[in-house]
Amino acid sequence: MSTSQGTCPGCKLGFWFDWNGNGTFGEGESYLMPVVAGTPTLQFYIPDRALLTNIYARFRLYGPGYTGPYSPTGMVKNGEVEDYRFVNPTAVELLWFQATGVRRAIKLGWETASEVDNLGFNLYRASVLEGPRTKINSALIPTNVPPGSPFGAVYEYTDTTVQGRVTYYYWLEDVDIYGNSTLHGPAQAQAR
Questions:
Q1: Is the pTM of this model over 0.70?
Q2: Which of 52, 86, 120 is the last residue of a domain?
């Protein structure tokens, strides 16, 4: 967040981050600073216990001469409030995901360009595009790159629990070390 020079002399900016994700702004989650001409950025401490995903924040600008409490809630007559939600999606850059029918099975393959903080993958299947999806891998398919790696890898998985001449739809889910996931697909194929 930035301030323009001279836009609000005498104003103060209160800001709060729900670092622990409990739905409230508590102790260690509030900050207050005067709005000083020429101050282009905010600086604040991110605690070690911060979730760093789906973080909710509130910013309140208090006008000059405000004498009430500095709080994330309640009425303020001469101020302005803005709420934000910061989402940290998994940092997997997927190059391709495909399904290919082979004899009595469907081969699934995908390639990633990078996998920052990726833990692994799940695969889901449905026999109808809008139908219910079933996870087909019993355990998370682990990443093939070291944690924090800016590199990608190539993966293969063979689904042998299919029937011939039935079209199946597949989705690929990447799961990061924070528990966030992103779904890719669908890819479709028939076993021969």
A1: no
A2: 86
